[in-house]
Amino acid sequence: MKSRTVSVSIAVPPAEVYEFASNPENLPRWAPAFCLSVAYSNGEWVVQSPDGPVTIRFVERNSFGVLDHMVKLPSGVEFYSPMRTIPNGAGSEVIFTLFQTPDMSDEKYLEDARLVENDLRTLKRILESQQGD
Fold first, then answer.
1. Of the four listed, 1, 18, 45, 80, which is most buried by Cβ atoms within 10 Å?
2. What pLDDT band is residue 133 in, cutting at 50, 70 and 90?
């Protein structure tokens, strides 16, 4: 599959970025293109997305900044979303890899990449504005 990695530098330590981004309850704040709302129901996180309800499952908490997650569509199809926060000087680099699935048009893939980029910029804005609070 074709892949594209999108990243953003955030002037916040990786542990703080990880704490915020790994909490599914924060998704509507920084990933509004994907998550309109989120609730924990029947042992899983259910995200109301523009395309309907999906479930999301993050990897176990870890000290490496790994934020990989599985997204399950209403159809039952699951896809893997690799995401990391790594040290970049005194701050962080947040990296998200987007894959183009075989059934995804080039236009949809480019649009998804643009939305991911916007969401990462929103994450940056939120976290940097909280510095010193």
1. 18
2. low
Can you say whether residue 94 is alpha, beta or left, with left for phi > 0 and alpha for psi between -120 and 50 degrees?
Answer: beta
Q: Which residue has the tokens 């109301």?
A: 48
Q: Which domains does the chain have, with CATH numbers?
A: 2-130 (3.30.530.20)
Tell me the C-alpha distance between 117 and 68, whole Å: 17
Mean pLDDT of 57-85: 93
CA distance 9 to 116: 14
Longest dimension (CA), the chain: 45
Is residue 130 classed as helix, strand or coil in its secondary structure? helix
Inter-residue contact 32 to 119 (CB < 8 Å): yes
Give the bridge partners for 41, in sequence order. Answer: 44
| Cα–Cα distance for residue pair 69/57, rounded to 1 Å | 5
Q: What local confidence, expressed as pLDDT, does residue 55 receive?
A: 96
Mean pLDDT of all residues in 62-90: 93
